[in-house]
Model the fold of this input.
Amino acid sequence: MRDQAVVRGMQRAELARRTGSNLETVRYYEKVGLLPEPPRTAGGYRSYDTTHERRLRFVLRARELGFSLDEIRALLRLVDERDQPCAEARAVAAIHLQDVRAKIADLKRMERVLKDVVAQCGDGTLPECPLIETLFGETAVN
Done:
């Protein structure tokens, strides 16, 4: 009789379902090395376990936070080696935070320009469109 505490392996579809991702996402993260290839059953099926699920959730959450694949690799290396101090993870996050703040500044600038252009359009009955003129670069963009 088998030990009931042993975790039953999951197929890729179940792993995808349990993590809220899709099959192609799981395949992709395996292909780029963020998710290790699972062992195979005697029948040749991939057999994922809770370790794979936990790691995939980590990758998915990191992607939600905008971390690049290289940043995720660096964080996973820290996870895998376990002897790395939190300071290294903090350094990766600090650099990412700088990138996020730069993107926010860019988005705020874009918002300001678009708000101004939309206001210039008025009711949309102008003979020349301020948006199109702005995109042609014929008016100043701040």
Helices lie at 12-19, 23-31, 50-64, 69-81, 86-121, 130-135. The longest helix spans residues 86-121. The chain has a mean pLDDT of 86.
